[in-house]
Amino acid sequence: MSMAPTTKSDGFFAHIFYVLRGNPITALAFILLAFFIVCALFGPLIVPYDPLASNTSNALKPPSSDHWFGTDNLGRDVFSRVIVATRLDLLISVSAVALSFVIGSILGSIAGYWGGWLDAILNRLLDTIMAFPLFVLAMGIVAALGNTIENIVYATALINIPFYARLVRAEVNIRRDAGFALAAKLAGNSDLRVLAVHIFPNALPPMMVQISLNLGWAILNAAGLSFIGLGVRPPTPEWGIMVAEGANFVISGEWWLALFPGLWLMLAVFTFNLLGDGLRDIVDPRKRT
Amino acid sequence: MLSIKDLAVDFQTRKGVVHAVRNVNLHVDKGETLGIVGESGSGKSVTSYALMRILDAGGTITAGDIVYSGIDLRHSSARDMRNIRGREISMIFQNPRAALNPIRKVGHQLEDVLKTHSQATRYDARAKAISMLEAVQIRNAEERYHAYPFELSGGMCQRIVIAIALACNPQLLIADEPTTGLDITTQKTVMDLIQSLSQERQMSSILITHDLGLAAQYCDRIVVMKDGELVETGKPKSLFNNAQHAYTRKLIAATPRKNASIRDLLPVEEQQPLPERSQSGETLLRVNNLVKTYAGKNGPVHAVKGISFDLKQGKSLALVGESGCGKSTTSSMITRLLDCSSGEIIFNGQDIGKIKLRDFAQHEMRKDIQMVFQDATDSLNPRHSAFQSILEPIKHLTDLRSAKRQDRVYELADLVGLPHSLLTRFPHQLSGGQKARVGIARAIAVNPQLLILDEPTAALDVSIQAIVLNLLADLRAKLGMTYLFVSHDLHVVRLLCDDVIVMKDGEIVEMGPVEEVMDQPKSEYTQSLLDAAPSLSKIVE
């Protein structure tokens, strides 16, 4: 490839840089995201204490220079637990969102492209899922299949599928008869290729906003589910459980037990919410000038 | 009545300041129709937006005075401007459907404007609205009062917009490309309506258009704009017969007219003799009793009612007619993008109508029939660079290896005159003419025998249209292609095609050699199409 019109990597990174420079909030979101990713990848290596090691002689100490976020009722270091929990929380939310993105995209694309009775059936199915409260569904799945993290992921993914499917369906539907889709057919693409290679990628920009908002929601959901005792079980460090356990101590004055994991949870959701617009601009070639 | 002095408008953009309009001086007298002509980007719309003070967020008037009947429009308050808009100065926009609120009855929209400017009360608004609808010659005005915009045709919507614009008896009407996108006969009725209404009310008007023929026919005085500056001004007759500025002359030359050949549209220094065309005289395409019927809400809709014609190899055939006549449906069926209800499409001796749509994408004949789409922007994938777009058919329909494929794309870019440096760009980074070239390069990439051209120049400026038409003529001779040219513009058809089929309501009204049909039309319908087309030749000697 001499002139490299088909490789677009350098243009792509230049474009990311351009988007970040033009939009400082996106840059902030990316910095926060990088922080969370580092925590998720290297959390256990960088924390000062073992998140599971209890030390009853040092229980319920307020934040200090030794224990930044204080210690809990078993004397475990809250800071270490909050950082280590990042991996699990991100894992649950990212895999749940990835699952619903993939399944929702496939269902939505099929419904939007071929339409007809397939569309009608899929839509009613999605309506039914949308009407299901997450917590009831999660309890049902856990009751039927067992209280594991995977099952919590499946429940969260299932609940989110309709949002992706609806969005993709609309985006695909308006492009079904667009000139470039017809041109792709003339160029010898089968229907499936036209859909997957030509139409679907054009639905990505609005999807990115949905994904990032959804990631925030999924973290909250995972935390909410473990708060009521589904999915993750103690002593595994996880933000939802830590808030749940800490809540018992707020009345007696040990506020740091619930506050710091809650704060981290909020920060994570905030990061993903900020990320949306920036991600959309990055995947949209029309934003490149 | 209106005078604009030294107007300058700047736009703040990502790439710095753009001077959209500079040093524009013009005036409109009472009862006069002023035409502003120019190509896209010439600043003709911006000028009118500036005087209405409805510029986009990034635009500011940086210099000059706009005075209307003694009122300083540039410095008047937002509140005064609201009173002036609609009551003193009204505007008609390009896309009537977009200018109307889609979920409000048209009658109510008319009442809104009357009430806003205290021209009607709750009690007489309805009656006044209906009388306005009658004034713009809408039949069954009482019924139409309750119609929603989507229930009306484009021409009808534009009449509603005119009714709204004229409801409060403004003294000045600005029409910004009021008939772009309308059929040629509808264009004539709409323009005649605007003309008669403004004469009746002794109203002044400004007609902004890219169509010189239209401006020549309906304006008392014309100004020509280029790159934000006034180039020339004058009465239509003297301006078009004796243009002083080179740009005006170029525009006039590029406008298709009766006694010009396709090469005459280009500037003299770029004219080269047309290459010889080879024609074997064999029948390439035979269409037999082709029918398309859709299932509609109120029974079946007959889009194409059994048409038959032959197309010989190397010839160019035009399908002409107004929107809804079935010409696009016919071309879609021949391109095998649409199934026919019955009939035969015999291409090179084989009935391709029998092959399933799904299978035809991978059929060996796919590469023999290609198409150039009407809207170049819409027909290019926004996520693909020009290179990728042209590569697409080569990848799927030829056996070229990847290194050869790239060479082929460069070769095609040369053939259609697209600089290689533009190949890495995305569609939104290309101009209209460049996008049209990419579309043509893609269509001819696999050496099709039959090329279907669906109004390939409809969205282009006249000077770009001239270049693209010449390019098509050159390619036809060079590659020995056969064209099926779908258009509503008879002047363009005359330049490029050998034979013409005039369609109406899914049937063929008339067919024959272009000169014969256009000079001695046998049917009234063809005659009315020819009469409706605004033409420079009526005025240029």
Provide structural commentary.
The complex is a heterodimer of chains A (289) and B (541). Chain A has 289 residues and is mainly α. Chain A has a single domain, classed as Orthogonal Bundle (MetI-like fold). Chain A has eleven helices and no strands. Chain A has helices at 9-22, 24-46, 78-114, 116-130, 134-145, 149-175, 179-186, 191-199, 204-227, 239-250, 256-283. Residues 1-9 of chain A have low confidence and may be disordered. With 541 residues, chain B is α/β, with parallel strands linked by helices. Chain B has a domain at 283-538: P-loop containing nucleotide triphosphate hydrolases (Rossmann fold). Chain B has 20 helices and 20 strands. In chain B, a hairpin with a 2-residue loop joins strand 14 and strand 15 (350-351). In chain B, helix 7 (154-166) runs parallel beside helix 8, helix 14 (386-397) packs across helix 15 (402-415) and helix 16 (432-444) packs parallel to helix 17 (462-479). The longest helix of chain B is centred in the last third of the chain and has 18 residues, at 462-479.
Structure keywords:
heterodimer; A: 289 residues; mainly alpha; globular; B: 541 residues; Rossmann fold; six-stranded mixed sheet
Quick structural overview:
Chain A is mostly helical. Chain A has helices spanning 9-22, 24-46, 78-114, 116-130, 134-145, 149-175, 179-186, 191-199, 204-227, 239-250, 256-283. Chain A has a single domain (12-51, 67-172, 201-287), classed as MetI-like (MetI-like fold, Orthogonal Bundle), CATH 1.10.3720.10.
